[in-house]
């Protein structure tokens, strides 16, 4: 049995990754120049079919409103627990659809995206404040992506998300809580630049950075997303509902099932809330069909 990443590569269509990369980057730039902050993946009729190869995007793939409630069955032992989410959506963003050709070399496409992000100057205040941009880290073939808020001081220095104390807690949540390795998942943020004094990102900043997030998710095509904290959950799902109500349910973004939990930095300040976070991780594991380890100490 080959690892999932190798299987993905073996099953991927044979397409020119450089041509694909150029097409994706051009598309992003066109959207930005047009003042479009939310990436809307075009229908098959509006994109060069050579980019899609033999893969055609159906009309279903271009539907609006990705924050649809998901009815998911989460099982633990013999007990069946049905969870249903109903979100008041405050904005609609089309899903990216499935970009199958990118599976030729996701590392290369993400590396190119990271280079483009390093040149991004869409948020002047953040550009003036940043040491460097912080793109993302992890396995580009992972079925699970964690999305946080924005780089902090340590991340800004090192150029990698979740490397400070909150990052250490996230790593412990992944390893001790979920029985996985940090390098098995992909980790990124809503923003790729550190806000001054670690302030909360504005909605406008999140909107400006959204094409980079959407492009990253389009490359990785995760089956599962875990939003860490209010900023990640509200911006991904396009809602003003707070994390306290978003957690404990399963949502849907594009084709990914989404579970929300508290940000590790919040858990460091409020250790009593780790119990709820553990429940969220158990829900995530159940949705992923993975075994639930005993509660970490
Ligand atoms: S936060 Fe995102 S959109 Fe804003 S400057 Fe940084 S990379 Fe660009």
Q: How confident is the prediction overall: mean pLDDT?
A: 77
Largest sheet: 6 strands, mixed
Order of helices and strands: HHHEEHHEEHHEHEHHEEHH
Total E-strand runs: 8
| Count of separate structural domains | 1
| Alpha-carbon Rg, integer | 18 Å
Measured by DSSP, the beta-strand proportion falls in 5-15%
Share of helical residues = 25-40%
CATH structural class: Alpha Beta
What does this structure look like?
Helix content is 40%, strand content 13%. It has a six-stranded mixed β-sheet, with helices on both faces. The protein has one domain: Uracil-DNA Glycosylase, subunit E. Helix 2 (17-33) packs parallel to helix 4 (106-118) and helix 4 (106-118) runs antiparallel to helix 8 (203-220). The longest helix has 18 residues, at 203-220. The protein has 297 residues and is of the alpha/beta class. It has helices at residues 4-11, 17-33, 49-52, 106-118, 124-129, 153-158, 165-177, 203-220, 230-237, 243-246, 264-269, 274-288; strands spanning 71-76, 79-84, 136-138, 144-148, 186-189, 224-228, 250-253, 256-261. The chain binds iron/sulfur cluster. Iron/sulfur cluster is lined by residues 117, 120-123, 126-127, 133, 191-193, 205, 208-209, 212.
């Amino acid at each position: 049995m080959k690892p999932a990443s190798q299987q993905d590569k073996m099953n991927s269509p044979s397409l020119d990754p450089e041509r694909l990369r150029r097409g994706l980057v051009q598309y992003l730039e066109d959207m930005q120049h047009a003042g479009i902050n939310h990436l809307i993946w075009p229908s098959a009729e509006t994109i060069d079919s050579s980019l899609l190869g033999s893969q055609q995007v159906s009309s279903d793939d271009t539907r609006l409103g990705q924050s649809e409630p998901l009815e998911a069955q989460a099982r633990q032992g013999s007990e069946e627990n049905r969870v249903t989410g109903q979100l008041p959506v405050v904005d609609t963003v089309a899903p990216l659809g499935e970009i199958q050709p990118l599976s030729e070399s996701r590392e290369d496409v993400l590396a190119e995206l990271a280079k483009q992000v390093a040149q991004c100057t869409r948020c002047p205040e953040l550009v003036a404040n940043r040491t460097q941009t912080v793109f993302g880290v992890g396995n580009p073939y992972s079925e699970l992506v964690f999305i946080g808020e924005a780089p902090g001081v340590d991340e800004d220095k090192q150029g990698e998300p979740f490397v400070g104390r909150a990052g250490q807690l996230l790593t412990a949540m992944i390893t001790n809580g979920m029985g996985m390795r940090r390098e098995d998942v992909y980790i990124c943020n809503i923003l790729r630049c550190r806000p001054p004094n670690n302030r909360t990102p504005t909605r406008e900043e999140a909107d400006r950075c959204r094409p980079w997030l959407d492009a990253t998710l389009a490359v990785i095509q995760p089956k599962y997303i875990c939003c860490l904290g209010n900023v990640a959950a509200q911006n991904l799902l396009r809602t003003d509902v707070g994390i306290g109500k978003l957690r404990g349910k399963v949502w849907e973004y594009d084709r990914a099932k989404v579970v929300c939990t508290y940000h590790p930095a919040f858990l460091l300040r409020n250790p009593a809330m780790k119990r709820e976070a553990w429940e969220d991780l158990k829900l995530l594991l159940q949705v992923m069909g993975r075994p639930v380890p005993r509660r970490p100490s």
